[in-house]
Design a protein that fits this description.
Blueprint (H helix, E strand, L loop, with lengths): L7 H11 L2 H7 L8 H19 L3 H7 L2 E3 L2 E3 L4 H10 L18 H14 L1 H20 L2 H13 L2 E6 L15 E4 L5 E11 L8 E8 L12 E6 L1 E3 L5 E4 L2 E6 L10 E14 L5 H37 L23 H33 L3 H36 L11 H9 L8 H13 L5 H16 L7 H27 L2 H35 L5 H18 L2 H9 L4 H4 L9
Parallel strand pairs: 3-6
Antiparallel strand pairs: 1-2, 4-5, 5-11, 6-7, 7-11, 8-9, 10-11
Helix pairs in contact: 1-10, 3-6, 6-7, 6-9, 6-10, 7-8, 7-9, 9-10, 9-11, 9-12, 10-11, 10-16, 10-17, 11-12, 11-13, 11-14, 11-16, 13-16, 14-15, 15-16, 16-17, 16-18
């Protein structure tokens, strides 16, 4: 397994030079403590924890996995101790409310830490990662009493959280769920049913686990309108608010999976477990979207994590591995052969990983910046604008970054040749671990129809138009810079085409609703490439400004410009085939009768 070294130089470039987080924090109400000096200290300490504590446990988690014995789950060697270090360091409370014992720092800082922890060891990072969604859900929808009882312990990290949605018969279609919630005389509810695929649903790392569970009340209407949301703790609370008697929720088994072996993916049986309603009855799915939106950004982080780890591992190998000579003559005549980094195809793979990882980092940080503004912006207008942009970008980030993260993980393995397929190098683990990201929190297809159907066509194009207008203003502001022409012209052209293609699909969908579904995944990927082009263009502008001013690391900045050029000339042209396929219509998918699929 490659040793992960957090790319602090690139992290700072994305935060400060591209997205101007220093000004963002200075203008954000309640973010006074997020000074440049404080942010730097957090980045340094977070990088140290990821590099020295979590990264060495990544291969351990994969080889040992979690073990289940009569409902008890034991995590791999070192996982529990690493979590205790994490709690003692105050990391779980960093971005949580001071009223609940948190440190009150902006949520975006937590995203950067999540990226570093997840790249070092995704299986481990899922344990505290899921707690953030539980905390956000309780903070947004829980009563004051519920927050006092559960939130402070989640904030401190003493307890962890999960979300329990899926059942064996209803993966994405939650309207079919059967878990029941019967009212008790004391105002609580008796929860009965089974949930599957519950990440971190049972483990030995914390004293209690707070499950956020979807279930139906006895008089609930059918479908998604009849779903309510409940808190169901692993251990009920004593009168003092501490861990009390074991609740009637147990882990029936853990899944045997393709990857992320270090995280327990559980079957949870609720056998009349005591639960407490969160939010209004029959509005549970609306409340759960607080958790799910947090998780979708978290899954986008996973795509970035696997791309970065692949790049770091394959770059080190490509510099060291000797094989054949450069086509233009020996690059290292003193050696028996040249390192494979001299070969064009290896460079294609390395630069693809680099462009996707570094572009994805800017994309992710922009989403986290929008979360900050949406939650604590200075004006209602700023909050509404951030919510609108986030609504458009969240499904793109989740799906595009996980699809390209998996691509990068596979390219990382490919750079190793036969060695990549061997367990000891860790690259095949990275591929296995990354595969689930395209399924988590709604598959790529689900995200695509959410983007095209609900967000874009559902708003009659208003959500998209606000974003394309932003790109248009950026292109116009930089159109006179000759050195930036190679970035600005193609971006401006694609930005206009984005709106044109959307209108054509919308017109077709008015005649046949299947047209939107048929175009949706190609549309999402097309959108993702344009969004990433926007960030790479912004990176090029920032790099040029610093070079012109004689500031910063010249080699780093020139590499940034070269990678931007690679992205625009080698990856952005993928939009051409996507434009063709998304307009090819639904007939080539739907006209074949079902019985003709079989031979």
């Amino acid at each position: 397994m490659p040793t992960y070294n957090p790319p602090l130089q690139d992290i700072r470039f994305a935060l400060r030079d591209v997205l101007d987080f220093d000004a963002h924090y200075a203008a954000l109400p309640g973010a006074e403590e997020a000074t440049p000096e404080t942010v730097d200290a957090i980045l340094e300490e977070g990088a140290k924890f990821a590099r020295e504590v979590l990264s060495p446990l990544n291969a351990v988690g994969d080889s040992e996995g979690c073990t289940w014995n009569d409902g008890v789950v034991t995590t791999p060697t070192g996982f529990r101790e690493a979590y205790q270090q994490y709690v003692e360091g105050g990391w779980p409370s960093m971005v949580q409310s001071e009223a609940m014992g948190g440190q009150g720092l902006p949520e975006s800082l937590g995203t950067v830490l999540s990226e570093m922890n997840g790249t070092a060891n995704w299986s481990w990072a899922m344990y505290p990662g899921l707690s953030h969604g539980a905390m956000n859900t309780l903070a947004a929808h829980g009563t004051e009493e519920q927050q006092q009882a559960y939130l402070s312990k989640l904030v401190s990290g003493e307890w962890t959280g999960t979300m329990c949605l899926t059942e064996s018969h209803c993966g994405t279609d939650l309207g079919l769920l059967k878990t029941r919630a019967e009212p008790n005389d004391d105002g609580s509810y008796s929860i009965t049913g089974q949930k599957i695929f519950i990440s971190a649903g049972e483990h030995d790392m914390a004293d209690n686990i707070v499950h956020i569970v979807l279930a139906r009340l006895p008089d609930a209407p059918a479908g998604t309108r009849g779903i309510s949301l409940f808190i169901v703790p692993k251990f009920s609370l004593s009168s003092e608010g501490e861990v009390g008697e074991r609740n009637a929720v147990n882990c029936g088994s853990i899944e045997h999976k393709m990857g992320i072996h270090g995280n327990a993916t559980c079957v949870l049986n609720f056998d009349g477990a005591k639960g407490f309603l969160i939010g209004p009855p029959n509005r549970g799915l609306n409340c759960m979207f607080t958790f799910m939106n947090t998780a979708r950004i978290g899954t986008a982080t996973q795509g970035l994590a696997h791309a970065e780890l692949a790049f770091q591992g394959s770059l080190a190998y490509a510099r060291d591995r000797l094989q054949m000579r450069s086509l233009s003559g020996p690059a290292h005549p003193d050696k028996a052969a040249d390192p494979i980094i001299v070969h064009p195809d290896v460079r294609r793979m390395l630069l693809t990983q680099k462009a996707l990882a570094e572009g994805g980092r800017m994309f992710l940080y922009r989403c986290s910046q929008l979360v900050d503004i949406a939650h604590q912006g200075a004006t209602e207008e700023a909050k509404a604008a951030a919510e609108q942009e986030l609504a458009l970008l969240t499904p793109i980030a989740k799906a595009f970054m996980t699809e390209t993260g998996f691509e990068a993980a596979n390219l990382g393995l490919q750079c190793f040749g036969g060695h990549g397929y061997i367990n000891e190098w860790g690259m095949e683990q990275n591929v296995r671990d990354s595969r689930i990201s395209m399924i988590y929190e709604g598959t790529t297809g689900v995200q695509a129809i959410d983007l095209l159907g609900r967000k874009v066509l559902g708003s009659q194009g208003a959500v998209l138009q606000a974003y394309t207008k932003q790109i248009h203003k950026f292109c116009k502001a930089n159109s006179d810079e000759a050195r930036l022409t190679r970035f600005i012209r193609p971006l401006a052209k694609l930005n206009q085409e984005w709106g044109d293609l959307t209108r054509r699909i919308g017109m077709a969908a008015m005649q046949d609703k299947e047209e939107a579904g048929a175009a949706s995944v190609d549309y999402l990927m097309y959108s993702g490439y344009i969004v990433l082009a926007y960030f790479w263009a912004q990176a090029a502008v920032a790099a040029e400004k610093k070079l012109e001013a004689g500031e910063g690391d010249t080699v780093f900045l020139q590499a940034k410009l070269f990678t931007a050029r690679f992205y625009f000339e080698r990856l952005l042209p993928r939009t051409r085939s996507l434009a063709v396929t998304m307009l090819s219509g639904a007939d080539n998918l739907m006209d074949l009768d079902e019985e003709h699929f079989a031979l």
